[in-house]
Amino acid sequence: MPGIEDEVLEVSDLDVHYGVGRRRHRALSGVSLQVRSGETLGLIGETGSGKSTLARTVLGLVRASGGRVRIGGEDVTGYSQRQWRSFRRRGVVQYVFQDPLRSLDPDLTVQESLLEPLLLRGDPRASALEAVREQFARVNLDEHLLPRRPAELSGGQRQRVAVARALVVEPALIILDEPVSALDAANRVQILQIIKNLRDAGTALVFISHDLGSVAGVADRIAVLYQGELVESGSTAEVLRTPQHAYTRLLLGSVPTLHAPPATRAERQALRAQLNGEPV
Ligand SMILES: Nc1ncnc2c1ncn2[C@@H]1O[C@H](COP(=O)(O)OP(=O)(O)OP(=O)(O)O)[C@@H](O)[C@H]1O
């Protein structure tokens, strides 16, 4: 049985609110999840369900109003900005966002972007350069792109650079927030393959998407967020075969590639009504 030390990410009873006073609203409520080393958790939910809020809270970009976050066994919940900077510098956790321009500094060349986390961590320049080149090859990018800035790359190349930047420090945990949503089919397939290779190499991954189809092929387990609450979680096979929550059934109904035929419009409407507490 894996012990607690195998949990790379442990989120317990997490609450997040935005706004103050009458504008205060809840984005996450009582969310608990764990990701072990070598495991990929697929986090799915519709727009506004709180997926990005969860990612941003785990990365220390949004402050929790309740609950705890542990990364690599370290409780980061109450960290100040200074503590977060020093924690990030160690490269334990990395991220890839949907828009690679948010993961990359537009003023840095690709080489500088990839070197930065290694040099911040204290690696010598020569070995850092070697690691950058190796990583670049692993995401199928040619070295002639290294002197370019993000604006001089295609969308697919940029996302591969963002993935390479996340990987170069060999983090224990990577949060991928809609990493393939903005890509065309060919680039999507390439990035999904890189994610699969990563998973096989033992990195813990949280793969966030509104698209169950992209996640199902990669994730070991799936967690479903609905209106800020985790309504379902289980092994991918379990969730696909016997979804417990009406929202998960609704999601499954929209994925024609799975074994069952897609739900009819009437079936989807009935599930949606059930979710909204309306009589069916
Ligand atoms: N900075 C913010 N200030 C105020 N409210 C916010 C902020 N960011 C998100 N929200 C709200 O919190 C809720 C959850 O948003 P979040 O972006 O986490 O959802 P999501 O599932 O990632 O959606 P999407 O798939 O559209 O990115 C939504 O109601 C959203 O409007």
Explain this structure to me?
The longest helix has 16 residues, at about 185-200. It is built from eleven helices and ten strands. α4 (about 110-120) packs parallel to α6, α5 packs across α6 and α10 (about 245-255) packs antiparallel against α11 (about 265-275). The protein has two domains: about 5-240, P-loop containing nucleotide triphosphate hydrolases (Rossmann fold); about 245-280, no CATH class. With about 280 residues, it is α/β, with parallel strands linked by helices. It has helices spanning about 50-60, 80-90, 100-105, 110-120, 125-140, 155-165, 185-200, 210-215, 235-240, 245-255, 265-275, and strands spanning about 5-20, 25-35, 40-45, 65-70, 75, 95, 175, 205-210, 220-225, 230-235. The model has no long low-confidence stretch (mean pLDDT about 90). It has a six-stranded mixed beta sheet with strand order 6-7-8-3-9-10, sandwiched between helices. It has a four-stranded antiparallel beta sheet with strand order 2-1-4-5, covered by helices on one side. The structure holds adenosine-5'-triphosphate. Adenosine-5'-triphosphate (ATP) binds near residues 27, 47, 50 and 51. It comes from Kineosporia mesophila.
Number of strands: 10
In the CATH scheme, what's the topology name of the largest domain? Rossmann fold
Biggest beta sheet attributes: 6 strands, mixed
What is the CATH-assigned architecture of the largest domain?
Answer: 3-Layer(aba) Sandwich
**Strand/helix succession:** EEEHEEHEHHHHEHEHEEHHH
- Secondary-structure content class: alpha/beta
Instruction: Sum up the overall morphology in one term.
Output: globular
Whole-number tally of structural domains: 2
Mean pLDDT: 88
Give me the Rg, rounded. 19 Å
CATH superfamily of the largest domain: P-loop containing nucleotide triphosphate hydrolases
Which distinct ligands sit in these coordinates?
Answer: adenosine-5'-triphosphate
Compute the separation of the termini in Å: 44 Å
Can you give the helix content as a percent range?
A: 25-40%
* CATH level-1 class of the largest domain: Alpha Beta
Strand line-up across the major sheet: 6-7-8-3-9-10
The DSSP helix count reads 11
Strand percentage, roughly?
Answer: 15-25%
